[in-house]
Amino acid sequence: MKELKCPKCGSTFTVDEADYALLLSQVKNSEFETELSRRIHELEQTQQARIQAEKAVEEARLQAEQLRREQQFNQQLQAKEQVLQSLQTQIANAEQQKQLAVAQVRQKATEEYLKKDQELSTLRTQMTEQLKAMQEQVAYYKDMKLRLSTKMVGETLEQHCATEFARIRPLFPNAYFEKDNEVVEGTKGDFVFRDKSDDGVEYISIMFEMKNENDETATKHKNEDFLAKLDADRKKKNCEYAVLVSMLEPESDLYNGGIVDMNHRFEKMYVIRPQFFVPLITLLCQANRKSLDAKRELALVKAQQIDVTNFEEKLTAFKDGFTRNVRLANERFADAIDEIDKTIAHLTKVRENLVKSGDNLNAADKKLQDVTIKRLTYGNPTMKAKFDEIKK
Fold first, then answer.
1. Integer Cα distance of 277 and 212 in angstroms
2. What is the pLDDT of residues 280-295, one digit of tens each?
3. Which residues contact 246 (CB under 8 A, 6 or more apart)?
4. Is the pTM for the entire model greater than 0.70?
5. Residue 292 to residue 202: CA distance in whole angstroms
6. Cβ neighbours around 19 below 10 Å, total
7. Which of 121, 227, 296, 320 is the most interior residue, by most CB within 10 Å?
């Protein structure tokens, strides 16, 4: 049995266990049930807030993972920038090497020019000495001419030239120097000279004509009377040069002065006195040997220039491609930076939402912690009394 007191009239009454249980059930089923429903609703809101917080945390984790990937991308980007700097250094080194190679080629060309100039100076000195010696022989040939008949003069001049060449034959081991006995179209020259390089390449050929006459000859000839025939004979025998060895016009200062170049009349033609026979052969051979060497050197220089040109073209193509790649990379960098800025702004907003969610969670947890029977029964004396009875 239970004894209860009415809160209004103050009278007491006794109830059995069944009645007590019924009263307690009525209390629970009314106000207490309402209060519990409210608390359950708040707990459900709190649970929903926790679920939202977990979602926000998962989003934050995903954002953090994205940020980590972006950091890796930035690291890779820095590595690419280092590679670009290395390539720029290589380009600078290649440019320096090219300039050095060009400077070396120029220096070599200068040295070759100075060497050739020195050789020409030496040749001038030799020619001056030979000219002096030949001038001393002029009197001998003049005296010889006075004592010979016309036929003997011509034959002796040819013999003289053959003898003079025989003296210098050791200097031209590969040379051909013989009388021209082959008649082509009714004419022929007196002598043909040809010489070859050590590798068998013919580098010079000369058609010679020897002309002389006595002072007693009735009809005096001039050197120009024989130039056209000599030029025709040169072409028929495929010779490069034509040389008239002449004792004609003995009083002419032009022909007595040395080697006379007749290129203004006929291509590659010269008129000389007999004393200049050997010097002219030597001079033309040396010049053509130099020309042969120059041609070989020119081919080598052209090949080198082609190599330098190819190198410059490749370097220019590399520079153009590198510049294009840098431009594209800069565009990609700008796009990446814009995306990073957008991501940062988005992460900042997410962070603000997370902070607010945290504040809400803290407030909900605080409210949950503050839920007590004392607070629930505050201002409700009936429920307070009931709970006090339960405690007892």
1. 14
2. 999 898 888 877 776 6
3. 210, 211, 212, 223, 226, 255, 271, 272, 273
4. no
5. 10
6. 14
7. 227
